[in-house]
Amino acid sequence: MSSPSTVATAGFVDAHTHLRSTSYADHGIGGTSFEEALLRMSAMTSVPIDDDVFVACADLLTQGVTTVQVIFHTFGDPDDYRAALHATIQGIERSGIRALVVLGTTDQAEFLPTGATHPELPDFCQVTRRLSEAEFGDVVSKATRDYPGISFGVGPVGPQWCSDSLLGAIGDIASEGYRVHSHFLESAAQRTWAPGDVLSRMKTHGLLGPSTSLAHAVWCSGEELHILSDLGVGLVTCPHSNRLLQAGRAPVDDWLRRGITVGVGLDSADPAARPLDVARLALSSAEAERGLTEGGLSCAGFSNVHDRVVWTDRESGIVDSVEVDGTTVVSRGQFREHSALELARERITETMNRDAANRKSRHSSIDAMIHRYHRQIAGGAR
C-alpha cells in the first residue's frame, strides 16, 4: 500500500521520441527556423548509440514514463542500419522500458525542397547513401525475426522526404500488420517541400488509418484534420520541441473537438523536461493526463499494460518506484542499474567534451552558408 504522502498511478507514454540522452542545447541545435535546426542536427556529436538509448530510457523511467514510441532512422547501407538498430534495441531492452520501434526511411530531399538548386552544403550534411525499397523491406523482415520481444512499426520519417514509390513500398509493408508512425507537417515549408499534397499521398498509399499516428501536425488545415479524424488517425503533439525548433504551435484544442485521439511526445528535446510540464504546454491538466496515458497507449498501439508508478511528489515529478509489467525498474527513486547508468552517462559526457571543438567548427561551417541556405529554401519550397 502507498503511504499517505505518496500516490500510485499508471505509467506515462512518450508517444514520439528519438531516445537521445542529450538535449538540443547540448549540441547547439537551434536557429531561426525548423529547417535550419534540422540542418544543424547534422553537426551533432555522435555518441555511443547503446549508451545513448540506455541512458535516455532510464531517465524516462525515473520520470514515470514506462512506454515509448521511438522513430528510428539512420543513413547508410543495410549493415549500418542494422548495426545502429541493434545498438538501439540493446539499450531499450537493458532499461526494461516498453517500446514500439518504428523503422523509418527516406529517399529524397532531406535538407532542400525537391528540385531546389543545391547549395554547397558542408560535407557532413551530405547524404551519400539511402536504403533502396527492397533493402528497407529486408531490414524490416530481418528485424522482426531477430527481435521477437520487440514491437515494430514502419513509416516514412516524413512524407515530404519520400518519393511516391517509397511511400507505396512502406504501405505494402504496413499492410502486413505493422503500425505506421511519421513526422507530419512539422513546419509550414514541409507542405510544399515535395510535389503533391502530403496527406493525399499518404492516404493513396495506405498509410493513414486507425493503426497510424502522426507526430507534430502543427500545420494541418481544418479539412485535413477532418479527414484524419474520419480515418481514425491519432495525433501526437510535441509542444516543447515545437517551441525550441521554431516549428509553431499545433491546434490541439481543434484536434480534441474533432474527436481525434491525442498523445504527447517529449521528442528527446530536453531530458530534464518533466512529462506533465510538457503536456500542459498544449493541454489542460485533465487532457494532459489523458494524453500521457490512454491517448499515448492508443497512438503507440498498446493495450492491457500493467505498469505502476509510485510518486513521492507527483506535482513535482518525483518518482519513488516504477514497475513495468510487474518488474521493478526504479526503486526509491533510483534506476535498478544505477552504477551502469552513471558509467554510460560518463562515457557520453566524455564523448561530448572531446568533440566540443569539432562540433563548434561544424556549426561554424553552417553559419558560413546559412543565409544562402535560407534563400534556397525560400526559392524551392513553393
Automatic annotation (TrEMBL):
InterPro entries on file: Amidohydro-rel, Metal_Hydrolase, MTA/SAH_deaminase
A UniProt-annotated Pfam family: Amidohydro_1
GO function term, MF aspect, one: hydrolase activity
Residue ranges of every copy of the Amidohydrolase-related domain listed in the record: 8-282
Keyword presence, Iron-sulfur: no
Keywords in alphabetical order: Hydrolase
SUPFAM superfamilies found in the cross-reference section: Metallo-dependent hydrolases (SSF51556)
PANTHER family named in the record: AMIDOHYDROLASE-RELATED DOMAIN-CONTAINING PROTEIN (PTHR43794:SF11), AMINOHYDROLASE SSNA-RELATED (PTHR43794)
Protein name: Unannotated protein
Taxonomic source organism: freshwater metagenome
